[in-house]
Amino acid sequence: MKMSDPLPSMQGPVCPVPLQHTEKIVMGHGSGGKMMQDLIAKTFFPPFENPVLMMGDDAGVVNLDHPTQLVISTDSHVVWPLFFPGGDIGKLAICGTVNDVAMMGAKPLYITVSFILEEGLEMPVLKRVVESMKSAALEADIQIVAGDTKVVQKGKADGLYITTAGVGVRSPKLSISGTQAKPGDKVILSGTIGDHGIAVLGARGELGFESEIQSDIAPLNKMVEALIACTEPEQVHVFRDPTRGGVASALNEIANQSNVGIVLDEHKIPVRRAVNAACEMLGFDPLYVANEGKLIAIVSSSCSDDVLMAMRNSLYGEEATLIGEVVNDHPGRVLMRTTIGSTRIVDTLSGEILPRIC
Amino acid sequence: MKMSDPLPSMQGPVCPVPLQHTEKIVMGHGSGGKMMQDLIAKTFFPPFENPVLMMGDDAGVVNLDHPTQLVISTDSHVVWPLFFPGGDIGKLAICGTVNDVAMMGAKPLYITVSFILEEGLEMPVLKRVVESMKSAALEADIQIVAGDTKVVQKGKADGLYITTAGVGVRSPKLSISGTQAKPGDKVILSGTIGDHGIAVLGARGELGFESEIQSDIAPLNKMVEALIACTEPEQVHVFRDPTRGGVASALNEIANQSNVGIVLDEHKIPVRRAVNAACEMLGFDPLYVANEGKLIAIVSSSCSDDVLMAMRNSLYGEEATLIGEVVNDHPGRVLMRTTIGSTRIVDTLSGEILPRIC
Predict the structure, then answer these.
(1) Domain tally, chain A
(2) A residues 98-117 near B, CB within 8 Å?
(3) Nearest CA of chain B to the CA of A92: how many Å?
(4) Is residue A7 one of the residues assigned to a domain?
(5) Are residues B220 and B266 in contact, defined by beta-carbon separation less than 8 angstroms?
(6) Is B46 helix (H, G, I), strand (E, B) or coil?
(7) Are residues A304 and A202 located together in one domain of the fold?
């Protein structure tokens, strides 16, 4: 071989060079987007495989030999900063898990709380967080039945992290799941989007201006109860809370799980003026910004008016609106009919836009 | 007031100056000892108060309207280093929670897994941990039914932390709890103590010599099943796995919960020669060193021979032995009859001896 020959690895069609950094965890792996889905699909699902986990929902539904079903879910919370307008890591830790259990149509009953505390954390900070958890648990009417405390050295955490796990029961008549969206179904959203993400960014001082945007954090289990009560069990197909990755990622997950298309109407999606302004300034699309007190319901078209009304009559659903529908075309895709009349694809978030938002 | 008057706060009897550092979290708050109990009693129990949590056991027992009881528990795992002789953080995360559920006499069925990953964590490390979790879950015959993944910036964690929550069912005929120890009961220990703590210290290079001590990490749920099967439900009073804080802390907790005394015979407590040597060198008492695959059973004296035999016939109980008894005297205290014939108090661990041991 002459020295002027091309190196063997340079021959053949030009392939993208495998990126070294994909072999290490990067911030995008916690994003709620494609990189996280990829991590879960390749690294966690194969060894853990079982039918309950592979459903890919927010919580595991397990059958006991009884006329009820247990629903079990967990979430770690690493939001930074610990306190922000409208909430804090404690309220988030309770509501996040309550909502994950509720999104399966279950009544959340019990929750566990596990703290990882950084050496040097100030006690008043911890007390404030714990009080906030108490209030949220009271509102959600859920019992904290077990807990754990670990402490790590200064510099090995960031104040505190909280992991919660929730257990709820649901009627076996319900088959609510991300796999159940059906062509013809209506897509209903419980209110404005992006409030949580922008509120946390504001608290980080990343908006560059004073903002009065509050996080929307709220326990949604009572809204879920009302929605189930207003119609027949078989007409309610999917509930999902669009947290990390926002409405766009949540709907893409559902479109994939159910192998259907979802078409949204841009002008129907409610966004607060201040949130919109902040997103424009930062170059974000509010569809990808995290919510912590919003619910997407996908239901039979025959009951969509009843569900919309029940949502609007709920404490956190006054601004509920019908934002789109499920279609046969474009399975696995979410499309947006824009305000100027065109249609664009709403893709899943690829990497990280807002680290440590929950 | 003249300038030479003593300051008002200096008058009166000399009081210990309140220590400023008690207002911040220190490593001792995660020790499993008094400081952690104090933190839980003062900071977590009052706002979270409910009868299930206040039992103070390793897992919450909750009643459904069914002929079974759910048992729910959680643990965060922050052990360092991530790998050590006999185990790793993944095996620990599964076995720790399986054992907490089993210690209530329940059959663990479902587990949730939540990861906090540090940016920059190497993927092969994560894969090795996940494979280890898979093996442990298989052995324990438990399903991982839900999970979560968060990523924090480099320097905001230490590789990875894992929080698990477990759900199990148990017969309502059982009333196993730390509150059920009764005078006359026998105290049985399933094997040698201190192996886990010393194995982890060895992996940290803190022993100053090469050690072959292996951690004892193991799922104990099948041993628990065998012990329950060998006698009547009402004769089994307490199961406890002596993890952080060791056998001494576990027995002190039980003595307090049941308001009884516990008397141990020093010469009956099995300690490996190598563990004993390491403890002597480091100035530790093996009674305070963590175990991850040991069980303390407190049972009626009438069934203690059967329970001891069933334990010795179990996979992880070959070296089981009767180490003491429950007494009326000294309620809340653990006493040790030493090899030289005296009796000493075995107190609860006060601060931290081995940070991040689990």
Answers:
(1) 2
(2) 100, 109-110, 112-117
(3) 14
(4) no
(5) no
(6) helix
(7) yes
Residue B197 sits in the same domain as residue B262? yes
Six-digit token string for B327: 């007494």
- Co-location of A214 and A84 in the same domain: no
Shared domain check, B275 and B132:
no
Q: Which one of B141, B170, B199 terminates a domain?
A: B170
Residue-level pLDDT, tens digit, chain B, 358 residues: 333 333 333 333 333 334 444 457 676 675 555 666 677 677 766 765 666 556 555 555 556 656 677 888 999 999 999 999 999 999 999 999 999 999 999 999 889 989 998 988 888 888 889 889 989 999 999 988 888 888 899 999 999 999 999 999 888 888 899 999 999 999 999 999 999 999 999 999 988 877 889 999 999 999 999 999 999 999 999 999 999 889 998 999 899 989 999 999 999 999 999 999 999 999 999 999 999 999 999 999 999 999 999 999 999 999 999 999 999 999 999 999 998 989 999 988 766 678 898 9
The answer on B78 and B206 residing in a single domain is: no
* A205 and A165 co-located in one domain: no
Residue B113 forms part of a structural domain: yes
**Strand B160-170 to B343-345 pairing:** unpaired
Start-to-end Cα distance in chain B: 57
Mutate to test the interface with A, among B109, B163, B244 (most CBs of A within 10 A): B163
Cβ proximity of B271 and B193 under 8 Å: yes
- Same domain flag for A199 and A329: yes
Domain-embedded: residue A327 = yes
Min Cα distance A126 → chain B (Å) is 8
B95 contacts: CB under 8 Å, gap ≥ 6:
B136, B140, B217, B218, B219, B220, B292, B293
Identify the domain containing residue B102 by its residue range: 56-170
Q: What SS3 class is residue A1?
A: coil
User: Within the 123-152 window of chain A, which residues sit less than 8 Å (CB to CB) from chain B?
Assistant: 123-124, 126-127, 130-131, 133-134, 137, 143-152
Confirm or reject contact between B200 and chain A (CB < 8 A).
no
ipTM (interface pTM)? 0.86
CB contact under 8 A, A146 and B74: yes
| Domain of residue A70, CATH code | 3.30.1330.10
Position B43 in a domain: no
Q: In this structure, what CATH number is given to the domain that contains residue B268?
A: 3.90.650.10
Residue partners of B220: CB distance under 8 A and separation at least 6: B95, B98, B99, B102, B103, B190, B241, B293, B294, B295, B316
Whether the full predicted model's pTM is greater than 0.90, yes or no, is no
